[in-house]
Amino acid sequence: MNNDAAKLSDIGTYFGNILTAMMPLLGMIAFIMLLVGGFKIMTAGGDTKAAQSGKDTLTYAVIGIVLSLVAWLVLAIIENLTGAKVTQFKLSF
Question: Is the pTM value of this prediction over 0.85?
């Protein structure tokens, strides 16, 4: 029998590790979307639909970044006001 097998009580640790790994990935995706939007605008060549598509991509990328920062800020404020560790994912069984 393997005593190192995962237990239900370890799910919080695993989920926390996944979320921690995803944050830099989301930042890279947002940066790539900013590059794609800029590239679309630069290569539009006077085509208004292509330029608008690039502007929309930039707008959505910036909105995603702002929403992510606001969500993290709200969690940080809740943690500072209440003392509850809401930015650290932990399940207790």
Answer: no
